[in-house]
Amino acid sequence: MENSLVDDIFKTMVDNADTAVLYTEPLVPNSLNAKEYLVKYANQQAQSFFVISSDSNENYTLEEIVKYDELLILANKVLETGEDENFSIIVKEAVSILNYHVRIRSFHKGLLFALSLIKPKFITDNESKLPLGNLKSRNRELEIFNLFGIRVLDSNDSIITYLKPVLNTTGNVNDFRIDYINNRIGEIANDDSAFVEGKTILEYYPKNSENGVLEILAECYTTGENKEYTKEFIFNEESVWLTTKAVKMNDGLILFSKDVTQEKKYEAQLFIQNRLLSEAEHVANIGSFRWNLVEDQIKYSDNVYRLFGYDPNEFDNKYDRLLTFLHPNDIEKVKSSFKVARRNKSKTDSVFRVYTKSQELRYMNTIGECYQKEGSWYMVGVIRDVTKQIEAESILQIKNTELKRTNADLEAFNRVASHDLQEPLRKIQMFVSRLDEEEEGRLSNRSQGYLSKIKYSSDRMRNLINNLLSYSKVDEVGEQPKRVDLNDVLKNVLEDLGERINDLNAQIESVSLPVVNGVQFQLEQLFANLIGNSLKYVKEGVQPNIKILGSIVSGNKTEVETLLPSINYVKLQFIDNGIGFEKKYQEKIFEIFQRLHGKTEFSGTGLGLSICKKIVQSHNGTIMAKGELDKGAEFTVYLPTLL
Amino acid sequence: MDKLKILLVDDDEDDRQFFADALEGVELNTELRQLENGKSCMEFLLSDTDNTPDLVFLDLNMPIMNGFECLEAIRRTPHLKDLLVAIYSTSSAERDIEETFEKGANIYIKKPSSFSELKKSLKQVVKMNWAYHLNDFKKENFLLKI
After folding, report:
1. N or C end of chain A, less CB within 10 A?
2. B87: Cα separation from own chain's centroid
């Protein structure tokens, strides 16, 4: 390839590069003061970065155009040491903060600056596009490109192609001849540059006539306008996506093509992920949004539109439009909530009412968070329809109020039962006992019998009231659970029942019992009721025997469904040899006022086991009964261990 | 020893009668005064200091001024702060019992449901009265649970 063509290719490349390139030479040869350097060449990016007007004939000095002292200091350093400088600078603009990578090196007779943006630039509407003018003509005089050879082009990331038009008889372009292509083509198409050069683009890749490439290039050639396009090509049965920039140069076109296959793949993946997200949103009744706070553009997911009863993209994506959906009383609340979030760049979480397209009132919850990207501020977040939750909550609140009232009623009943019911009963008992004492031996047998009946009935009534009270008191939040040694519990209970045990000549067998977390007096009541039952339902003619066993079992080693498999339980067993009960009553005996026996047969209120069950439940445990008629009864209690 | 001066404060007429009758059964030289509520109790204790009783039985649930308030008033009065006070109530709630001891009660008697038990309790309290005068009084020995 001729040297002049390489020069032209390279110059075009540099002119169109994303990197700002600035070449300066000293006024006095070999000057060591950067301030004395004049700008000799600046590509488009450099002209825009340094704001060099290309209209004027002025000779810019480096000092004039470099607004950052840092750059001059480092330029001087390069002059002193002759070594390259690599660093980055932060440039603050009106709406954006940009981070450039800067490279300064001694080059030819002067200094070469290269600035490339590390983060993509946030493009403003009024981005300056400086026309090329006198500066460009000055650039042409530069010799710097002669210093570069084909190797530089080959080391470029892009495929660089130089095309010459092939004209048909009527003077129209109907093909292009590939005059030069760098060896990047080898990596993509597995063809040598030499193999490709000399062919036309339709010969090398016939589909160029169908995929629009030929058309675009012809237009670029005819109009002289730069063109950019992204197309898919198939090389060796593999898909390759290339983004190509076409620039008219001399009598031909120069193409810079970049392999964007990976990006395309990511794009496809992104598309699938977006679809998934969209599906998920639909299922979860959630919508998401991304709000550009600077430009006030809100990008809604399709489901947001659906939540408001619209079709995707049916309403305007401005904040003000969103406000029109709101219930009038919620507008201020939402406005101030967003205002605070925007000002403080903080999180927002608010619930508000909206009217959907069909004028249906719904509750929405929005959670949004602010973040900065590419020099702009965004809020991303989700919108959820929480109407059901709000409704459920309000129902719950009503139920809660009802429950509170019921509890208060129950408490009032307890007070009545404990005092007002007991008072008259006690009086009856007092008078009966006085009557009994004073009229002893003077009453007829029948009257004495009546008196006994009154005594018996009032005793029963007292018992009943006491049991009712203890039953309703189990749930009272009184004492906090503490470490309770069940051996102490058993000892106290056996002491209280001592008289009856002696009277019945009952045999009590027990093992050493574990420690649990509980309320001592309730556990005593539990033991007293269970052992008391065994002493009550004894079999005539048989010495009562009561076994109290205790062990620790793992929740998953039992067949009890109500126990948690992950924790350990204290298993207590109360086994007697009394009259037992029929198997079918195993569940029923714990029900309130459930009696298996006639009142006269065995005294009792029918509350004892209900109280037991309630106590065990309030200790997060389980109680079960096992029995067989005439074979005794067995009660098993599971209570969670301390750990 | 002189007559043991006993004051019973209870709004319930029947209970006062039971008490008086039971006290008669206790073979001891006693003098019983009966009042109907805490207010009249305090009026009496503050005005007639010559007749300050040896022992007061105080019901809790009373109109105008209840037993708790009366107990507090007694303990606030310098010459009554060591007066022996027995609470005499139907309530068996632990909370009530504890509260009376916190407020300075000496004994707690739950109103029994038989006359013979009442007589038994009163005898014990008299015994306790002796222990009190002999400085051998321990509260836990005289919490009568019936």
Report:
1. C
2. 5
Question: Among partner residues B14, B111, B114, which is closest to A433 by beta-carbon distance?
Answer: B114
Q: Flag if B113 and A423 touch (Cβ within 8 Å).
A: no
Pairing state between β A173-181 and A159-167:
antiparallel
Comparison of pLDDT for B1 and A336, the residue scoring more: A336
Q: What is the DSSP string of A469-498?
A: HHHHHTTS--SPPEEEEHHHHHHHHHHHTH
Write the residue in A419, A437, A458 that is nearest to B115 by C-beta. Answer: A437
Q: How far apart are the CA of A463 and the nearest CA of chain B, in angstroms?
A: 12
The single-letter code of the amino acid at A370 is C
| Chain B residue with the nearest C-alpha to that of A425 | B113
**pLDDT tens string A166-216:** 888 887 888 999 988 887 788 888 888 888 888 999 999 888 888 889 999
| Three-class secondary structure of residue A467 per DSSP | helix
Contacts 24+ apart (CB under 8 A), A604-610: A604/A536, A605/A460, A605/A463, A605/A464, A605/A467, A605/A468, A607/A464, A607/A467, A607/A468, A607/A470, A607/A471, A608/A467, A608/A529, A608/A532, A608/A533, A609/A529, A609/A533, A610/A471
Q: In 3-state terms, what secondary structure has residue A308?
A: coil
Structure tokens at A629: 């008629």
Q: Are A578 and A538 in contact (CB under 8 A)?
A: yes
C-alpha closest to that of A377 among A451, A294, A447? A294
Write the DSSP symbol of residue A93.
Answer: -
| Domain membership of residue B135 as a residue range | 4-144
Pick from A418, A437, A462: which is nearest to B113 by CB? A462
What digits encode the pLDDT tens for the residues B66-88?
888 899 999 888 888 888 888 89
Residues 6+ apart with CB under 8 A from A428: A454, A458
| Nearest-by-CA chain A residue for B114 | A430
Q: At B108, which CATH number?
A: 3.40.50.2300
Residues of B contacting chain A (CB within 8 angstroms): 14, 18, 21, 61, 90-91, 93, 111-116, 118
> Around Cβ A315, how many Cβ atoms within 10 Å?
17
Domains of chain A (ranges; CATH) run: 3-146 (3.30.450.20), 156-259 (3.30.450.20), 265-385 (3.30.450.20), 479-640 (3.30.565.10)
Res. A131: pLDDT tops 50: no
Report the domain count for chain B: 1
> In 3D, which of A29, A34, A9 has the Cα closest to residue A113?
A34
Which residue does chain A place closest to B92, by CA atoms?
A418
